[in-house]
Amino acid sequence: MLHLPFPLVSRLPDVGTTIFTTMSRLAQECGAINLSQGFPDFSADDALFERVAHWMRSGHNQYAPMAGVAALRDAIAAKVSGLYGADYDPEHEITVTAGATQALFTAVAALVHPGDEVIVFEPVYDSYVPAIQLQGGVVRRARLSAPNYRPDWDAVRQLVSPRTRMIMINTPHNPSGSVWTASDLQALAALTRDTGIVVVADEVYEHIVFDGVRHESAALYPELAARSVIVSSFGKTFHVTGWKVGYVLAPRALMAEFRKVHQFNVFTVNTPVQLALADYMEDPARYGGLAAFYQAKRDFFREGLAGTGFELLPCAGTYFQTVRYGAISDVADVDFVDWLTRRVGVAAIPLSAFFGDARDEKVIRFCFAKRDETLLAAFERLQRFC
Question: The domain 46-286: what is its CATH number?
Answer without folding.
Answer: 3.40.640.10
